[in-house]
Amino acid sequence: MAPADAAPVAAAPATGVAPSSSAAASAHADGIAWRKGDVDAAFVAAKADHKPLFLYWGAVWCPPCNQVKATLFNRQDFIERSRFFVPVYIDGDSPSAQKLGARFNVSGYPTMILFTPDGREIVRLPGEADPEQYMQVLTMGMNGARPVKDTLAAALSASRAHAELSADDWRMLAYYSWITDEQQLIPEKSVAPTLKRLAQACPADQKDTAVRLELKALAAAATAKDAKPMLDAAATARLLAVLADSRLVRENFDTLTEYAGKIAGFVSAPKSPERARLTASWTAALDRLVADTSLWTADRLVAVSAEVALARLDAKDAPLPALLEKRVRDAVARADRETADPYARQAVIDAAAEALVEAGLLDDADMLLKAELKRSHSPYYFMVDLAEVAKKRGDKAGALEWYAQSYSAAQGPATRVQWGTRYVNALIELAPQDAARIEHAAGSVIGELEPVPDTFYDRNLRSLERMGKKLAAWSKEPAQRAAFVRIRAQMSGVCAKLPAADPARAKCGGALRPQAAKA
User: Fold this and answer.
1) Cβ pair 55, 90 in contact under 8 A
2) Which end of the chain is less packed: N or C, by CB atoms within 10 Å?
3) Burial of 308 by CB count in 10 Å (0-12 exposed, 13-18 middle, 19+ buried)?
4) In angstroms, rounded to a whole number, what is the distance separating the alpha carbons of residues 90 and 98?
5) Residue 436: inside a domain, yes or no?
6) Rounded Cα gap, residues 61 and 208, in angstroms
7) What is the pLDDT of residues 367-383, one digit of tens each?
8) Is 480 inside any structural domain?
9) Which residues contact 331 (CB under 8 A, 6 or more apart)?
10) 301 lies in a domain?
11) Do residues 27 and 86 lie in contact, with contact meaning Cβ atoms separated by under 8 Å?
12) Beta carbons within 10 angstroms of residue 254's beta carbon
């Protein structure tokens, strides 16, 4: 993302209601006047004040959330704009947060949604986009206040409504946060073909928007569960045209960096001349992004990782070229040296460590992450990264020690469920013979579960269900089966404390019983 002062202050939206002088003073003195308590009361206030409602769902440890805080929420234009909507902040570890997550169909951190004053969802905002682009989408959403769901239906129709769509309507579709959609607009399997249809249906005078829609379609297709290379010469030709255009590359940096290896591998054949041309052109475009100081540091590091991914496409196990290895090390060292803000560092060091790991520089990654434990406000996040580095080295004991430390240090009820179940799953993978240790770890996770309905929703429930599936698959031998029986009995004791008629009781009961949950 671009530096926080890159964009001018945006004008107040046409549909906004001017805030009171006290509200304005609060916004200037304290930044954004977040509501962090009663969400329903916030919707009531939004309706009464005829203001849209902006909902942010995130977590303290989450690197992209910290990037949003470091590059968007501290921008003066965003702070000014927040005076014209009701800003709601839901931390994933706050009371009832996971139940609210299920209510709003949000899962990934961060998710940001704009609602109409009467509570209809307008748009899911693209946290991965450049802050200036983000502000444009936010402004369009506030000014138009037309739900993207309605815009999508019109765009896919052959009716008069299609012809009446504005350029902003098409841009809203192109910049919609499809990665946090959670099947609100369309089923997951339909995302890629739908985006492709939109790109083809986009008016001729909206070429830039059509390009973004096609890139998003390719990314969705390349990362689908059943993705198979399509070896599309026409798509490759269009990609080459985009990559040769510096302006389009900059506008679509998020897709071109995050999905470089996936898309290139999807549209071209291994070791073919077409792939060689595509990866060479893509690498040249990435070089420009790495050197682009208008991009935020973490985004430039992702561009470096993308270069590594392209270099490994047809040489997965071969050593990286020495120049590329040096490029990775230099980029990481510069980012580490120049980033002081704690929010920024949480995102930057995460991206830096990923670049080092992708490059196979595990010792460098290990050193970087260990040093960050003393500086990070959420060191338990980086302990998981250290566990992954140890696992890549083949050091099972070291990996499990880091997973254990990360769980021990984790803070917040939802975070502890996620970190604890991750530790159990790692034990099952790396030390399946240690039934006593697995039972003890699972028992610790269950023992911390608060026996209230709000506990058994969203990320909490999915984490417990994943652990249940792992335990069920693991419990083949008598000692393992006996341990699993005791673990489930402990869980049943927690579930029994929930109100009998509450749906959460059934969710709780099914979490460690994969077949029952499926039924």
Assistant:
1) yes
2) C
3) buried
4) 9
5) yes
6) 35
7) 999 999 999 999 999 99
8) yes
9) 290, 300, 301, 304, 352, 355
10) no
11) no
12) 23
